């Protein structure tokens, strides 16, 4: 399989959940070190987010990485350097995003990493960490989310965007709950 075929197969990869893999945190640590080693002046922090960051959670076996930068202008300046560092992305898709830049790594026709470059300690940064941390602390809530993910993966196997959108209400309810508690 050549690079173009691998990329196309990764883009078209169906939504398929895997049971939690205890190797996922180490895969994140490796990518974190790689990013910080190459972009030490630009990345203020790098965090493991998404379902692979929640012990016991089934997930698409793709490591979600959130890299914090000082401003979206820095994220934009990193666009081409990240493309030269093994990531790919869609310029058109990123043009629809006001609060982040999105990149993907792939190998052998499978997605391996998603990189979300966001403003460090901005709204999106805090929301993603709040969601992750809440599910890490609340086993019952994590169980509900796992069941929802399985149901949605079965319904939206061939439509990643629909799968992600369908999880949105649950994610927003968790984040809104955290905000409510913080404002007290």
What would you note in describing this structure?
This is GrpB family protein. It comes from Halomonas kalidii. There is one protein chain. The chain is α+β, with helices and mostly antiparallel strands and 184 residues long. The protein has one domain: 2-Layer Sandwich (Beta Polymerase, domain 2), CATH 3.30.460.10. The protein has eight helices and four strands; from the N terminus they run ααββαααββααα. It has helices at 3-11, 24-38, 72-77, 79-83, 91-95, 123-137, 139-155, 160-182, and strands at residues 45-49, 63-69, 101-107, 110-119. A hairpin with a 2-residue loop joins strand 3 and strand 4 (110-119). The termini are far apart. The model has no long low-confidence stretch (mean pLDDT 93).
Defining traits:
184 residues; alpha+beta; Beta Polymerase, domain 2; four-stranded mixed beta sheet; 8 helices; globular
User: What is the string of helix and strand elements?
Assistant: HHEEHHHEEHHH
CATH superfamily: Beta Polymerase, domain 2
Query: What's the number of helices?
Result: 8
Largest sheet: 4 strands, mixed
Rounded mean pLDDT score: 93
Radius of gyration: 16 Å
Poorly predicted tracts of residues: none
Question: Gist?
Answer:
This protein has 184 residues and is α+β, with helices and mostly antiparallel strands. The protein is 52% helix and 16% strand.
Summarize the helices and strands and which ones pair or pack.
Blueprint: H1 3-11, H2 24-38, E1 45-49, E2 63-69, H3 72-77, H4 79-83, H5 91-95, E3 101-107, E4 110-119, H6 123-137, H7 139-155, H8 160-182
């Amino acid at each position: 399989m050549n690079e173009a075929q691998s990329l196309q197969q990764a883009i078209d990869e169906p939504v398929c959940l895997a049971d939690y893999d205890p190797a996922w945190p180490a895969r994140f640590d490796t990518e974190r070190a790689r990013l910080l080693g190459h972009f030490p002046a630009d990345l203020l922090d790098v965090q493991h987010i998404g379902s692979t960051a929640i012990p016991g959670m089934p997930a698409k076996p793709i490591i979600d990485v959130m890299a914090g930068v000082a401003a979206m202008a820095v994220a934009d300046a990193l666009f081409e350097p990240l493309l030269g560092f093994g990531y790919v992305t869609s310029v058109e898709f990123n043009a629809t995003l006001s609060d982040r830049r999105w990149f993907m790594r792939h190998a052998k026709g499978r997605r391996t990493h998603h990189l979300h470059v966001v403003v460090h300690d901005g709204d999106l940064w805090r929301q993603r960490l709040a969601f992750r941390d809440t599910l890490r602390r609340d086993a019952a809530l994590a169980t509900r989310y796992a069941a929802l993910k399985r149901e949605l993966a079965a319904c939206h196997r061939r439509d990643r965007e629909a799968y992600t959108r369908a999880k949105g209400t649950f994610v927003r309810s968790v984040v809104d709950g955290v905000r409510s508690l913080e404002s007290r």
